[in-house]
């Protein structure tokens, strides 16, 4: 099935999700904050978050690569980096219960954004769309996203669709000043006829949806 149009370059994003042992979450976060500069010396980290609501003992991080050859070179360099392997990987692996990764592209109509200031929270919304890719549901999905943007209560950070992993998955990242600001904005959006109409059109292509509230770690470029 065609994935439809995408950006005209080879840049992609690897989304890595780790489930951490509940008793080890504090230790894992401390290790990340202390040693992750060893990892970011090799390639660009977009963001690193821990789940606050909608999931527990879970972290999500996003890496940007120029192309697949770039990722291969970075992974080889990491395997040979004795500091990274010894100070982080070896002690961190026993703290992790499960790892999952996906390769995703920004949708063609979205550029990676930044929050207007530090100190807010991130909402990670995962949509499982019907098979067919953006060629099928892209236009209606874009209209629904734009309807929420136009309400002004939230800031769009990025919209990604998967290339490896579960296909027809779309991850949307929003930034809000606080969970309460987000709740008030959502309440207003649900009473906005334009939002309601756009969402009703988009859900024709929707199979499931999951929302997670994320808190950026100290090492995260997106704060």
UniProtKB/TrEMBL annotation:
GO biological process: mitophagy
Cellular component terms per the entry's GO annotation: mitochondrion
Gene3D superfamilies according to UniProt: 3.30.70.100
Domain (NIPSNAP): residue spans on this chain: 13-111, 122-221
InterPro entries, A to Z: Dimeric_a/b-barrel, NIPSNAP, NipSnap_domain
UniProt similarity note: Belongs to the NipSnap family.
Protein name: NPS3A protein
